[in-house]
Amino acid sequence: xxxxxxxxxxxxxxxxxxxxxxxxxxxxxxxxxxxxxxxxxxxxxxxxxxxxxxxxxxxxxxxxxxxxxxxxxxxxxxxxxxxxxxxxxxxxxxxxxxxxxxxxxxxxxxxxxxxxxxxxxxxxxxxxxxxxxxxxxxxxxxxxxxxxxxxxxxxxxxxxxxxxxxxxxxxxxxxxxxxxxxxxxxxxxxxxxxxxxxxxxxxxxxxxxxxxxxxxxxxxxxxxxxxxxxxxxxxxxxxxxxxxxxxxxxxxxxxxxxxxxxxxxxxxxxxxxxxxxxxxxxxxxxxxxxxxxxxxxxxxxxxxxxxxxxxxxxxxxxxxxxxxxxxxxxxxxxxxxxxxxxxxxxxxxxxxxxxxxxxxxxxxxxxxxxxxxxxxxxxxxxxxxxxxxxxxxxxxxxxxxxxxx
RNA sequence: GGGCAGGUACCGAAGUGGUCAACCGGGGCAGACUGUAAAUCUGCUGGGCUCCGCCCUACGGAGGUUCGAAUCCUUCCCUGCCCA
Length: 405
Known about the structure:
Layout: H1 5-13, E1 18-20, H2 22-35, E2 40-45, H3 54-68, E3 72-77, H4 81-84, H5 99-113, E4 122-126, H6 128-131, H7 136-143, H8 148-151, H9 155-162, H10 169-185, E5 189-193, H11 197-209, E6 216-220, H12 246-254, H13 261-267, H14 273-285, H15 290-305, H16 308-323, E7 333-336, E8 342-344, H17 345-351, H18 358-366, E9 370-372, E10 375-376, E11 383-385, E12 390-394, E13 398-404
Parallel strand pairs: 2-3, 2-5, 3-4, 5-6, 7-13
Antiparallel strand pairs: 1-6, 8-11, 9-10, 9-12, 12-13
Helix pairs in contact: 10-11, 12-15, 12-16, 13-15, 15-16, 17-18
The protein binds one RNA strand through residues 163-166, 226-228, 236-237, 251-252, 254-259, 261, 289-292, 294-295, 318-319, 321-323, 357-360, 362-364, 366-370, 380-381, 394-397.
């Protein structure tokens, strides 16, 4: 049995940026309840970048909420569209991938997505199944339903167009391909980040053109990356992967700027609204220490993807290393080849991968970023005895025991 | 097909024959400080070496001119704009 319309709408609106058209969605839900028939909730997945991070989790979490309401989640692995490469946000044409690559990536995507999604009420489909079968004349028919002016309404297209950055024709086709997916699976609702709004709306238009009841759309905010400015993405290396270790996850959350703490509370840790508001107020009037708010958020996030124990361990370790400047409880050990069990410090850093080149190693040493057995060294030509294991620390968080082979 | 403007390090962007491994900004890294891997401030940011100096590689690709080229010439590739 489905919850009431109002209950459902409350859940759907929670955290969403836009739900439109709302009245249409209400009607769809009413019908769904009346006929005891779940709605088709669509989410398109881009398998060209299969490493999911907590930014993706925002929208996956919303899909999960739909599942919990009893609706059917349809995850479309865009193996075909990945060959086009959605130009979203990027000002340059993306590299295209082969179908094979994207198939493999799609599998990996699915595994990660089911960390959040339930396996029941979940259907997974690959859009190459239908897009790959379209003939050129099918494509022309599809393309005839939309105009260049309409496509140029899309913000990034028009920006690129105005500033003379190339747009290839196949990129223009991307929103249409995605819209075709909506028609194919008869989506009732499509989810996406705010950057997807345009594509989602095109889906409505194309569904109408093919005589299908148009979908409603729900857009979710784009979570900022750990730098606090750019949206989270792998290419900017400001992301927290769903599969990051507890320690990494905790540390990365602690490194976000204070200004986005409550964003993370809401969209990454999924704290309830009243709790987020309370912290917001506390931060503003100084009764809540930003560091503590961050710790709480970091713990919750680690707990979500690992466990409560893991979260506590990560917290303790963090305190130990950064607050008390002590050693982590587990330090890797590495053996290196060394003549007479002795080696120059620069060579040592390169041999262990702690520095990418000798020049870089030299810089690190001269800047005081390298400690051997907790003693600062500033001589890059220093010889290091390695018959016993030595502790090498580079920067604030790289620790390694090194010993001669 | 024709005309014009461009292609510089991770990104943006200077430089238009030697003083250029290339100004500056962003990013990244390190240090100081701290409340954290926040904020702020400072420094560094192609590689190698017998390391206060020397040697390689690098300014879209390939040739060439020159004692010497990111800078000049030829050609090829790529992009934008205008015309057809």
